[in-house]
Design a protein that fits this description.
The structure holds 2 protein chains of 2 kinds.
Chain A (H helix, E strand, L loop, with lengths): L3 E3 L4 E6 L2 E6 L5 E4 L1 H9 L6 H9 L6 H17 L3 E3 L1
Antiparallel strand pairs in A: 1-5, 2-3, 3-4
Chain B lengths: L3 H9 L2 E3 L15 E4 L3 E5 L4 E6 L3 E6 L5 H19 L3 E10 L2 E6 L6 H10 L4 E3 L2 E5 L7 E3 L5 E3 L1 H7 L3 E6 L2 E6 L10 E11 L4 E4 L2 H7 L4 H11 L3 H14 L2 E6 L6 H17 L1
Parallel strand pairs in B: 1-5, 7-14, 14-16
Antiparallel strand pairs in B: 2-3, 3-4, 4-5, 6-7, 6-8, 6-9, 9-10, 10-14, 11-13, 12-13, 15-16
Classes of the chains: A alpha+beta, B alpha+beta.
Protein backbone atom coordinates (compact mmCIF):
# COMPACT_ATOMS: atom_id res chain seq x y z
CA UNK A 1 0.00 0.00 0.00
CA UNK A 2 1.30 3.42 -1.02
CA UNK A 3 -0.29 6.22 0.96
CA UNK A 4 -1.17 9.33 -1.02
CA UNK A 5 0.09 12.50 0.57
CA UNK A 6 0.10 16.17 -0.32
CA UNK A 7 3.40 17.93 -0.97
CA UNK A 8 2.35 20.86 1.17
CA UNK A 9 5.47 22.90 0.54
CA UNK A 10 4.64 23.10 -3.16
CA UNK A 11 1.26 24.83 -3.05
CA UNK A 12 -1.17 26.99 -1.15
CA UNK A 13 -4.91 26.49 -1.18
CA UNK A 14 -8.18 28.13 -0.24
CA UNK A 15 -11.75 26.91 0.19
CA UNK A 16 -14.15 29.38 -1.41
CA UNK A 17 -17.75 28.26 -1.13
CA UNK A 18 -17.73 24.61 -2.27
CA UNK A 19 -14.69 25.08 -4.48
CA UNK A 20 -11.03 24.52 -3.69
CA UNK A 21 -8.53 26.82 -5.39
CA UNK A 22 -4.93 25.58 -5.38
CA UNK A 23 -1.93 27.61 -6.50
CA UNK A 24 1.45 26.11 -7.35
CA UNK A 25 4.07 28.15 -5.57
CA UNK A 26 6.73 27.57 -8.23
CA UNK A 27 4.86 29.14 -11.13
CA UNK A 28 1.61 30.61 -9.78
CA UNK A 29 -0.54 28.20 -11.81
CA UNK A 30 -4.07 27.88 -10.46
CA UNK A 31 -6.15 24.75 -10.20
CA UNK A 32 -9.82 24.62 -9.32
CA UNK A 33 -11.37 21.53 -7.79
CA UNK A 34 -15.13 21.07 -7.55
CA UNK A 35 -17.56 18.24 -6.81
CA UNK A 36 -15.87 14.81 -6.69
CA UNK A 37 -12.40 16.27 -7.37
CA UNK A 38 -12.76 18.52 -4.31
CA UNK A 39 -14.01 15.52 -2.30
CA UNK A 40 -10.98 13.43 -3.32
CA UNK A 41 -8.63 16.27 -2.39
CA UNK A 42 -10.24 16.56 1.05
CA UNK A 43 -9.91 12.79 1.58
CA UNK A 44 -6.16 12.80 0.95
CA UNK A 45 -4.79 12.70 4.46
CA UNK A 46 -1.38 11.03 4.07
CA UNK A 47 -2.72 7.68 5.32
CA UNK A 48 -5.19 6.53 2.64
CA UNK A 49 -3.94 4.77 -0.47
CA UNK A 50 -5.81 4.73 -3.80
CA UNK A 51 -8.08 1.89 -2.77
CA UNK A 52 -9.01 3.63 0.47
CA UNK A 53 -9.74 6.85 -1.43
CA UNK A 54 -12.03 4.97 -3.82
CA UNK A 55 -13.78 3.25 -0.92
CA UNK A 56 -14.30 6.52 0.95
CA UNK A 57 -15.62 8.21 -2.18
CA UNK A 58 -18.09 5.38 -2.80
CA UNK A 59 -19.78 6.31 0.43
CA UNK A 60 -20.45 9.82 -0.93
CA UNK A 61 -21.23 9.26 -4.62
CA UNK A 62 -23.65 6.95 -6.40
CA UNK A 63 -21.35 6.25 -9.38
CA UNK A 64 -20.14 2.70 -10.09
CA UNK A 65 -16.83 1.44 -8.70
CA UNK A 66 -15.08 1.51 -12.04
CA UNK A 67 -16.04 5.15 -12.68
CA UNK A 68 -14.92 6.22 -9.22
CA UNK A 69 -11.61 4.39 -9.58
CA UNK A 70 -11.12 6.06 -12.95
CA UNK A 71 -11.88 9.53 -11.52
CA UNK A 72 -9.49 9.00 -8.62
CA UNK A 73 -6.76 7.72 -10.95
CA UNK A 74 -7.15 10.63 -13.36
CA UNK A 75 -7.06 13.25 -10.63
CA UNK A 76 -4.10 11.70 -8.82
CA UNK A 77 -2.19 11.56 -12.09
CA UNK A 78 -2.93 15.24 -12.78
CA UNK A 79 -1.99 16.33 -9.27
CA UNK A 80 1.21 14.29 -9.26
CA UNK A 81 2.20 15.77 -12.63
CA UNK A 82 1.67 19.23 -11.09
CA UNK A 83 3.93 18.31 -8.18
CA UNK A 84 1.17 18.52 -5.60
CA UNK A 85 1.06 14.86 -4.53
CA UNK A 86 3.23 11.79 -4.01
CA UNK A 87 2.43 8.13 -3.37
CA UNK A 88 4.89 6.23 -1.23
CA UNK B 1 -17.77 59.98 13.51
CA UNK B 2 -14.89 59.17 11.18
CA UNK B 3 -13.21 55.78 11.14
CA UNK B 4 -9.51 55.27 11.83
CA UNK B 5 -8.98 54.59 8.10
CA UNK B 6 -10.69 57.84 7.11
CA UNK B 7 -8.55 59.81 9.55
CA UNK B 8 -5.46 58.01 8.27
CA UNK B 9 -6.23 58.96 4.66
CA UNK B 10 -6.98 62.56 5.64
CA UNK B 11 -3.64 62.76 7.39
CA UNK B 12 -1.63 61.02 4.69
CA UNK B 13 -3.12 63.01 1.78
CA UNK B 14 -2.17 66.41 3.20
CA UNK B 15 -0.72 68.42 0.32
CA UNK B 16 2.04 70.97 0.14
CA UNK B 17 3.62 72.50 -2.94
CA UNK B 18 7.37 72.41 -3.35
CA UNK B 19 10.21 70.90 -5.32
CA UNK B 20 10.04 67.19 -6.20
CA UNK B 21 13.32 65.47 -7.05
CA UNK B 22 12.72 63.03 -9.91
CA UNK B 23 15.84 61.03 -8.94
CA UNK B 24 14.79 60.34 -5.37
CA UNK B 25 13.60 56.75 -5.92
CA UNK B 26 16.44 55.32 -7.97
CA UNK B 27 16.94 56.44 -11.59
CA UNK B 28 15.44 59.59 -13.07
CA UNK B 29 11.70 59.24 -13.60
CA UNK B 30 10.67 60.18 -17.14
CA UNK B 31 7.33 61.92 -17.95
CA UNK B 32 4.40 59.53 -18.04
CA UNK B 33 5.85 57.17 -15.45
CA UNK B 34 5.48 56.42 -11.75
CA UNK B 35 7.43 54.47 -9.18
CA UNK B 36 5.96 52.80 -6.11
CA UNK B 37 7.81 51.42 -3.11
CA UNK B 38 6.63 50.07 0.22
CA UNK B 39 6.51 53.52 1.84
CA UNK B 40 6.74 56.01 -1.01
CA UNK B 41 5.39 56.93 -4.42
CA UNK B 42 6.71 59.20 -7.16
CA UNK B 43 4.68 60.27 -10.19
CA UNK B 44 5.78 62.35 -13.17
CA UNK B 45 2.86 62.99 -15.51
CA UNK B 46 3.18 63.52 -19.24
CA UNK B 47 2.02 67.10 -18.63
CA UNK B 48 4.92 67.77 -16.27
CA UNK B 49 3.18 67.47 -12.89
CA UNK B 50 5.30 65.85 -10.20
CA UNK B 51 3.96 64.21 -7.05
CA UNK B 52 5.90 62.65 -4.23
CA UNK B 53 4.43 60.84 -1.25
CA UNK B 54 6.22 59.30 1.68
CA UNK B 55 4.40 57.55 4.51
CA UNK B 56 3.96 59.91 7.42
CA UNK B 57 5.03 62.98 5.44
CA UNK B 58 2.05 63.63 3.14
CA UNK B 59 2.13 64.60 -0.54
CA UNK B 60 4.37 67.14 -2.23
CA UNK B 61 3.27 68.54 -5.60
CA UNK B 62 5.46 70.41 -8.06
CA UNK B 63 3.87 71.92 -11.16
CA UNK B 64 5.93 73.18 -14.09
CA UNK B 65 4.76 76.48 -15.49
CA UNK B 66 3.65 74.65 -18.66
CA UNK B 67 1.53 72.11 -16.79
CA UNK B 68 -2.24 72.32 -16.83
CA UNK B 69 -3.50 73.45 -13.41
CA UNK B 70 -6.84 71.69 -13.78
CA UNK B 71 -5.01 68.36 -14.09
CA UNK B 72 -3.45 68.67 -10.64
CA UNK B 73 -6.55 67.72 -8.68
CA UNK B 74 -7.45 64.90 -11.07
CA UNK B 75 -4.10 63.16 -10.64
CA UNK B 76 -4.17 63.84 -6.90
CA UNK B 77 -7.58 62.23 -6.47
CA UNK B 78 -6.79 59.43 -8.88
CA UNK B 79 -3.44 57.65 -9.12
CA UNK B 80 -1.85 59.44 -6.17
CA UNK B 81 -4.75 58.81 -3.80
CA UNK B 82 -4.82 55.12 -4.79
CA UNK B 83 -1.08 54.76 -4.23
CA UNK B 84 -1.33 56.38 -0.79
CA UNK B 85 -4.20 54.03 0.09
CA UNK B 86 -2.19 50.97 -0.99
CA UNK B 87 0.91 52.02 0.93
CA UNK B 88 -1.25 52.35 4.03
CA UNK B 89 -2.85 48.91 3.69
CA UNK B 90 -6.13 50.01 2.12
CA UNK B 91 -7.40 48.49 -1.11
CA UNK B 92 -8.56 50.91 -3.84
CA UNK B 93 -10.57 49.48 -6.71
CA UNK B 94 -12.03 51.09 -9.82
CA UNK B 95 -15.67 51.19 -8.85
CA UNK B 96 -18.56 53.56 -8.34
CA UNK B 97 -21.06 52.79 -5.61
CA UNK B 98 -24.46 53.65 -4.24
CA UNK B 99 -25.61 53.25 -0.65
CA UNK B 100 -28.73 51.43 0.43
CA UNK B 101 -29.93 50.07 3.74
CA UNK B 102 -26.62 50.85 5.44
CA UNK B 103 -24.50 49.03 2.86
CA UNK B 104 -22.52 49.94 -0.24
CA UNK B 105 -23.27 48.38 -3.63
CA UNK B 106 -20.33 48.87 -5.96
CA UNK B 107 -20.24 48.68 -9.76
CA UNK B 108 -16.88 48.03 -11.36
CA UNK B 109 -15.54 47.84 -14.90
CA UNK B 110 -12.95 49.41 -17.16
CA UNK B 111 -12.97 53.10 -18.07
CA UNK B 112 -15.95 53.84 -20.28
CA UNK B 113 -18.02 50.92 -19.01
CA UNK B 114 -20.64 53.26 -17.54
CA UNK B 115 -19.91 53.20 -13.81
CA UNK B 116 -20.56 56.91 -13.20
CA UNK B 117 -23.53 57.02 -15.58
CA UNK B 118 -25.17 54.13 -13.73
CA UNK B 119 -24.57 55.76 -10.35
CA UNK B 120 -26.16 58.99 -11.58
CA UNK B 121 -29.14 57.10 -12.99
CA UNK B 122 -29.60 55.13 -9.76
CA UNK B 123 -29.47 58.48 -7.97
CA UNK B 124 -32.46 59.59 -10.01
CA UNK B 125 -34.23 56.53 -8.59
CA UNK B 126 -33.42 57.63 -5.06
CA UNK B 127 -30.18 55.79 -4.25
CA UNK B 128 -27.54 58.13 -2.81
CA UNK B 129 -24.02 58.05 -4.21
CA UNK B 130 -21.35 56.44 -2.06
CA UNK B 131 -18.37 57.02 -4.35
CA UNK B 132 -17.46 57.66 -7.97
CA UNK B 133 -14.65 55.92 -9.84
CA UNK B 134 -12.56 54.84 -6.85
CA UNK B 135 -13.79 52.71 -3.96
CA UNK B 136 -11.38 52.25 -1.07
CA UNK B 137 -11.74 49.07 0.98
CA UNK B 138 -10.64 48.83 4.60
CA UNK B 139 -9.69 45.25 5.52
CA UNK B 140 -8.68 46.15 9.08
CA UNK B 141 -11.46 44.04 10.59
CA UNK B 142 -10.76 40.42 9.56
CA UNK B 143 -14.47 39.62 9.44
CA UNK B 144 -15.82 42.58 7.46
CA UNK B 145 -14.90 44.46 4.28
CA UNK B 146 -15.65 48.11 4.97
CA UNK B 147 -15.82 50.81 2.30
CA UNK B 148 -14.59 54.35 2.83
CA UNK B 149 -16.91 57.03 1.45
CA UNK B 150 -15.82 58.59 -1.82
CA UNK B 151 -13.35 61.43 -2.00
CA UNK B 152 -14.24 62.42 -5.58
CA UNK B 153 -17.14 64.38 -7.02
CA UNK B 154 -19.34 62.73 -9.61
CA UNK B 155 -18.03 63.34 -13.16
CA UNK B 156 -20.20 62.79 -16.24
CA UNK B 157 -19.87 63.23 -19.99
CA UNK B 158 -22.44 65.44 -21.75
CA UNK B 159 -24.04 62.27 -23.11
CA UNK B 160 -24.31 60.77 -19.61
CA UNK B 161 -25.81 64.02 -18.29
CA UNK B 162 -28.46 63.90 -21.00
CA UNK B 163 -29.13 60.20 -20.47
CA UNK B 164 -29.49 60.42 -16.70
CA UNK B 165 -30.97 63.90 -16.30
CA UNK B 166 -28.32 64.75 -13.71
CA UNK B 167 -27.56 68.45 -13.20
CA UNK B 168 -24.22 69.63 -14.58
CA UNK B 169 -21.94 71.86 -12.57
CA UNK B 170 -18.59 73.24 -13.76
CA UNK B 171 -16.36 71.57 -16.40
CA UNK B 172 -13.83 69.09 -15.01
CA UNK B 173 -10.88 70.66 -16.77
CA UNK B 174 -9.35 71.94 -19.97
CA UNK B 175 -9.57 69.42 -22.78
CA UNK B 176 -11.68 66.98 -20.74
CA UNK B 177 -15.17 66.41 -22.07
CA UNK B 178 -16.72 65.88 -18.65
CA UNK B 179 -18.58 67.98 -16.11
CA UNK B 180 -18.84 67.70 -12.38
CA UNK B 181 -22.41 66.81 -11.53
CA UNK B 182 -24.60 66.90 -8.49
CA UNK B 183 -25.37 63.43 -7.13
CA UNK B 184 -29.16 63.34 -7.69
CA UNK B 185 -29.97 61.69 -4.32
CA UNK B 186 -27.07 63.22 -2.41
CA UNK B 187 -24.12 61.28 -1.07
CA UNK B 188 -23.19 59.27 2.00
CA UNK B 189 -20.14 60.25 4.02
CA UNK B 190 -19.86 57.44 6.56
CA UNK B 191 -18.02 54.11 6.10
CA UNK B 192 -20.30 51.22 5.17
CA UNK B 193 -19.88 47.46 4.81
CA UNK B 194 -19.64 46.28 1.20
CA UNK B 195 -22.81 44.44 0.21
CA UNK B 196 -21.76 43.41 -3.28
CA UNK B 197 -19.27 44.12 -6.05
CA UNK B 198 -21.02 44.04 -9.43
CA UNK B 199 -19.05 43.75 -12.68
CA UNK B 200 -20.43 45.72 -15.65
CA UNK B 201 -20.41 43.79 -18.91
CA UNK B 202 -21.97 44.15 -22.34
CA UNK B 203 -24.49 41.61 -23.62
CA UNK B 204 -27.73 41.33 -25.50
CA UNK B 205 -30.18 40.78 -22.65
CA UNK B 206 -30.04 42.65 -19.34
CA UNK B 207 -29.31 40.18 -16.53
CA UNK B 208 -27.58 40.08 -13.16
CA UNK B 209 -26.03 36.79 -12.05
CA UNK B 210 -24.18 35.92 -8.88
CA UNK B 211 -20.60 34.67 -9.28
CA UNK B 212 -19.38 31.38 -7.82
CA UNK B 213 -16.37 31.07 -5.52
CA UNK B 214 -13.82 30.31 -8.24
CA UNK B 215 -15.13 33.08 -10.47
CA UNK B 216 -14.88 35.52 -7.57
CA UNK B 217 -11.29 34.50 -6.98
CA UNK B 218 -10.41 35.13 -10.63
CA UNK B 219 -12.26 38.46 -10.59
CA UNK B 220 -10.08 39.75 -7.76
CA UNK B 221 -7.43 40.18 -10.44
CA UNK B 222 -9.72 42.01 -12.87
CA UNK B 223 -8.73 45.48 -11.78
CA UNK B 224 -5.15 45.07 -12.96
CA UNK B 225 -3.98 48.57 -12.17
CA UNK B 226 -4.89 48.82 -8.50
CA UNK B 227 -4.44 45.09 -7.80
CA UNK B 228 -0.88 45.45 -9.02
CA UNK B 229 -0.34 48.64 -7.00
CA UNK B 230 -1.51 46.95 -3.81
CA UNK B 231 0.70 43.89 -4.32
CA UNK B 232 3.76 46.06 -4.94
CA UNK B 233 3.07 48.39 -2.02
CA UNK B 234 2.53 45.50 0.39
CA UNK B 235 5.55 43.66 -1.05
CA UNK B 236 3.52 40.46 -1.22
CA UNK B 237 5.14 37.22 -2.24
CA UNK B 238 3.08 34.79 -4.34
CA UNK B 239 1.52 33.01 -1.36
CA UNK B 240 0.59 36.26 0.39
CA UNK B 241 -0.99 37.59 -2.80
CA UNK B 242 -3.00 34.35 -3.06
CA UNK B 243 -4.19 34.64 0.55
CA UNK B 244 -5.21 38.26 -0.01
CA UNK B 245 -7.21 37.37 -3.11
CA UNK B 246 -8.80 34.39 -1.36
CA UNK B 247 -9.95 36.63 1.47
CA UNK B 248 -11.54 39.08 -0.97
CA UNK B 249 -13.23 36.21 -2.83
CA UNK B 250 -14.58 34.70 0.40
CA UNK B 251 -15.84 37.93 1.94
CA UNK B 252 -17.14 39.91 -1.03
CA UNK B 253 -20.35 38.87 -2.74
CA UNK B 254 -19.96 39.45 -6.47
CA UNK B 255 -22.24 39.51 -9.48
CA UNK B 256 -22.10 40.10 -13.22
CA UNK B 257 -24.42 42.78 -14.62
CA UNK B 258 -24.83 42.23 -18.36
CA UNK B 259 -26.66 44.84 -20.39
CA UNK B 260 -26.71 46.04 -24.01
CA UNK B 261 -24.91 49.20 -25.11
CA UNK B 262 -28.13 50.69 -26.36
CA UNK B 263 -29.43 54.07 -25.22
CA UNK B 264 -33.00 52.99 -25.82
CA UNK B 265 -32.60 50.15 -23.30
CA UNK B 266 -30.48 52.03 -20.77
CA UNK B 267 -33.26 52.77 -18.29
CA UNK B 268 -34.44 49.16 -18.33
CA UNK B 269 -30.98 48.11 -17.18
CA UNK B 270 -30.97 50.79 -14.49
CA UNK B 271 -34.34 49.57 -13.20
CA UNK B 272 -32.97 46.02 -13.10
CA UNK B 273 -29.95 47.21 -11.10
CA UNK B 274 -32.21 48.96 -8.64
CA UNK B 275 -34.39 45.88 -8.20
CA UNK B 276 -31.26 43.81 -7.65
CA UNK B 277 -30.00 46.13 -4.93
CA UNK B 278 -33.40 46.02 -3.27
CA UNK B 279 -33.49 42.22 -3.48
CA UNK B 280 -30.05 41.95 -1.89
CA UNK B 281 -31.35 44.13 0.93
CA UNK B 282 -34.26 41.77 1.52
CA UNK B 283 -32.10 38.61 1.69
Amino acid sequence: MNAVHKLTGNFTEADIDEEIIIMRLDNGELLSLVDSAAAIWRLIDGRRDRAALVAALKAEYAADDEQIAQDVGDLLYQLKEAGLLAEE
Amino acid sequence: MKSAAQLLMERETRVRHGPVDLDRLGGRLEPGHSHLEADSYLLHTADGLRYFYRKGEGITICRDSAADASEEQLWLNGSVYSAVACINGLVPIHASAVAHDGKAFAFTGPSGSGKSTLIAALGQLGLPMFCDDTLVLDLGDPDVVTCLPGHKRLKLTPEALELTGARAEEPVGTGIDKFYAEAPAGDVMTPLPLAELIFLEEGTQPAIERLSGGERFLRTQDDHYTAHLFAVARQFDRAEQFAHRARLARQIAMARFVRPWDRARFHGGVALARRHVTAVEQQ
